[in-house]
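User: I'll paste a sequence; please echo it back and then give the predicted structure.

Assistant: Echoing your sequence first, then the prediction.
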Amino acid sequence: MKLAVQEGMLPGRSLMERVDRAAEYGFEGVELGGDRLCERFEEVARVFEDHAVNVSTICSGYGGCLLDPDKVQRDRAVEDIQRLLEAGGRLGAVGLICVPVFGGPRLPDLSPLKPTRTLEMDLLVDLLGPLSETAAQAKCLLLIEPLNRYETHLINRLTQAIAVARRVGSKGIAVMADLFHMSIEEDDPAEAIRAAGKHIRHVHLADSQRLQPGTGHTNFRAAFRALRETGFSDYMALECGLRGRPGAALSECVKFLKKQLR
């Protein structure tokens, strides 16, 4: 298991400075924001070309919404996701993180033809099918992320994300686990990880109050033990606020996480 950190959490005036800082603190990967990634692709590729730190993943950054009633917005999301998957593949990223919809439902209730949730899931599976094939060809997974109930109504638990991945039925799709969201939605995060098994290909790390690990009461040791039992060997990326000065906070966080991993 490898530690990564989101690009925006790192201090530095340039991407190179931030990636150098990541290496200094003990991270092995950097999770890039998808926003404007394609526009700055050449710069990003140069920075990581011979660096000890790798691109772990790409976090969202696409426009539109896969489950918007406006086809223009759905098409925009699909096109942006395709471009980001291709860019991620060229950068060697494990995958692109995808949240199908934020907030409440946008599609109408078409009962008795189809209730909203059924309509959403059917549409999502139809859209993710071709996207997952793009992901497989690009060798950059499409990672479905469950969020807590206060951020999305649709996919809140690992079992729900896995059900979508199974319906799509492609090697290009997988799920990711976020320990902050799981602390709200899962009865036992470690057991949920064990049940998800090899479907998990990426992890987000934040403590119980969404600050850096080691500042709250999340049981990281139990979660890491469960991940190890499933054979997980990919990146776990910090996605959280920081208490304290960024450099010191990140350096101490890495020490804490490595201790929990041992």
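The mean pLDDT is 97. The radius of gyration is 18 Å.
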